[in-house]
Amino acid sequence: xxxxxxxxxxxxxxxxxxxRNTARIHALVFRFLGDATLAEDLTQEAFLRIFKTARNYQxxxxxxxxxxxIVANLSFNVRRDRKKAMSLSLETIGDDETRRQDLPDPxxxxxxxxxxxxELGEKLAQAVAMLPDNQRIGFILNRYEYKNYDEIAEILDCxxxxxxxxxxxxxxxxxxxxxxxxx
Length: 183
Description:
Elements: H1 2-7, H2 11-33, H3 36-53, H4 63-86, H5 95-102, H6 117-129, H7 133-143, H8 149-156, H9 160-182
Helix pairs in contact: 2-3, 2-4, 3-4, 4-8, 6-9, 7-9, 8-9
């Protein structure tokens, strides 16, 4: 196992580990956060954490599960920090700004407008972005990373039944969000 070689101090093994997993981790973070620069930063941060904690690594689970757990935690932290930074008190939002937010965007497509595959994909990405964090990461791991329920449960540190419920709620939320584009 490559990670055991890293644990023993093999720098070439670490370089291989980074090379093998960078694209996958970058894609996962990008799908979760929607920001390419941030995805790059968090990918590097994940490998930095692996390097720093390599001596303490215990192969109790698959390496990929451990790596996904690190990435999920980093992503959750960023989302939590973003929410804190973006929260504003109601007094700071002026009446003019509130009225502007209520106006429909004249450049947006109506729900009845025929969407091509690219536009539909964009709408799905927006709907995924609106899911609660656990549903979002669970859906991404299942749909894009092809992880099964047991693997997701291990990554999210919950039961398989909780994952099934989580994914069911995520699919239901996505179905509701996409319904107006698919009818």
